[in-house]
């Protein structure tokens, strides 16, 4: 592809080039690919169709000279009568005294502005001398940050088309263009900058959105391919006898979904490809069990494993449950921020000399001074809580380990294929047998006394309850329930025999741990907590989850919280206290009571709140598309993904000239990727 500097466009000198470089425009290609951010529709309407106080465009003939009155220092007001059809309309413009010269009697003008029905007057923000036919009714608006005037910019684009339009390369092979009835590239580009009507603009967008998404998916597929093929020679032996014995000895039979996931992970491990896989499954679906099998399988061939989790409490619980599962079979070390000094040094030594088989930790695991003897498998739990960089550091830690990401927050398919298109995916979509779904109710706060009675009844059956409040401090702004107040309220309202604990973010780690420990040991009947309990903590005896101000949480987060109960044999309950004002809020609470399927909730959350809210913008990993919107264009996204998969494995890529551009693009992506790993 030719890279032409903008200075090759006639009329563009060094000064202009410098100015527009501030918009990121250096080449002709950049210029052409700077699309309008929106369009203004100037459609001339019949004067009787105009609506008071709305924007309108009128075409008329100037009846008399314009009158300008000056006021203030620099302000002025121009009025001119024009004849529109059989009506005389008064045009008013502010600070356009200069227009007086153009608005001479008998001249045809087109004005756009706000229509005043009562005064038969229009306050114009745009005017143009001449008839509307001279100009298309859709005007592009560019974001130019005052670097260049919009008129000059349009001229530039137009000039670029004149000079170089014939050299714009087609990027999409005719097969796909015909299949989806897409405009060719040049027509689409021309129409996005200079649309003649709405229909044409739509077609242009459709073509360019497909192109944008196809390129994105090609990139993802290229990276996926790359993860698979680079670092060949990492095939691991698996001692099937030992691993099968381990599985046999688990206190339960694997579900079919767990077996399938383990099968997929296993084939990654023994293949010479490097694993780069995401394991999704609802809370309690048995991901940790699958992770344990995977870890055990590399440890039995004298490699090390590491598992990284987002919080210390979770690291401690994980270390504990792995310890229970593995017993003496595996040497486990816990590495978190609170492991310091001499102890940390000792652990680091034992990791480096290979004495430790499995390290469970927080991001303390990816510090520079942590060196493994032979790291074979890394597991990242609750992976979306880690930044992309942290994930990358871990992946790149010596030895090119296989990497398995896990998440209990099911990711809507649309987001999964955009954010994680470069990963393989395993899904555990089945709960272990005998698990009773948590009964979920949505109530208003006024029924609190009844809720407390209900908790008391459960406590009498020796069960436990969580009561979740969103924040620990009074916040006037947010009017959020105060966990401390709530705790005191329960202390007063509940019988003395009921012991209540309070867990919040202000406690030290040790205090939190102590509190969780007491709850886990059933020394506390009720735990009032902020969302610090959200992730991972496992107390099978807890059967009630009460969530205050539930409307403030995302559905996936509520689902996570709900997953803290229903972990044992007894029937469990989730009570959402919420008084949402809007329809969306009501709908969200309703859905919570209707389904216990995290994948459905995730899709609903995405639909109701948009991708930004799903993980938080930063973590969603969504690229900033210029035209495409994954939440709206998800069908195209899926189509593009399938096409990318086909294209990347096709011989046509190197054999057919129509695929030349795509082939070049893929090679470029690959080169960038290789550079990233130097
Ligand atoms: P996750 O990590 O997906 O939240 P876990 O692996 O922690 O789920 O499993 C949740 C609970 O279910 C644990 O107590 C675990 O021992 C148990 N469990 C896991 N797999 C099964 C199974 N196939 N049958 C019965 N219980 C299981
Ligand atoms: Mg888990």
From TrEMBL:
Helicase C-terminal domain ranges (all copies): 447-607
Residue ranges that the Swiss-Prot or TrEMBL entry lists as coiled coil: none
MF-aspect GO terms: 3'-5' DNA helicase activity; ATP binding; ATP hydrolysis activity; DNA binding
Report the top EC class in one word. isomerase
**Alphabetical keyword list:** ATP-binding, DNA damage, DNA recombination, DNA repair, DNA-binding, Helicase, Hydrolase, Isomerase, Nucleotide-binding
Keyword Ligase: yes or no? no
Q: Which GO terms describe its biological process?
A: DNA recombination; DNA repair
Q: Which CDD domains match?
A: DEXHc_RecG, SF2_C_RecG
Q: Has UniProt tagged this entry with the keyword Transcription?
A: no
Concerning InterPro entries, the annotation shows: ATP-dep_DNA_helicase_RecG, DEAD/DEAH_box_helicase_dom, Helicase_ATP-bd, Helicase_C-like, NA-bd_OB-fold, P-loop_NTPase, RecG/Mfd, RecG_dom3_C
Task: Tell me where in this chain the Helicase ATP-binding domain is found.
Answer: 268-428
UniProt cross-references to Pfam families, sorted A to Z: DEAD (PF00270), Helicase_C (PF00271), RecG_dom3_C (PF19833), RecG_wedge (PF17191)
Catalysed reactions, as listed in the record? Couples ATP hydrolysis with the unwinding of duplex DNA by translocating in the 3'-5' direction; ATP + H2O = ADP + phosphate + H(+)
The EC number(s) attached to this protein equal 5.6.2.4
Stored SMART domains: DEXDc, HELICc
Q: What role does it play?
A: Plays a critical role in recombination and DNA repair. Helps process Holliday junction intermediates to mature products by catalyzing branch migration. Has replication fork regression activity, unwinds stalled or blocked replication forks to make a HJ that can be resolved. Has a DNA unwinding activity characteristic of a DNA helicase with 3'-5' polarity.
Name the NCBIfam families on file: PRK10917.1-3, PRK10917.2-2, recG
Q: Which family does it belong to?
A: Belongs to the helicase family. RecG subfamily.
Q: What is this protein called?
A: ATP-dependent DNA helicase RecG
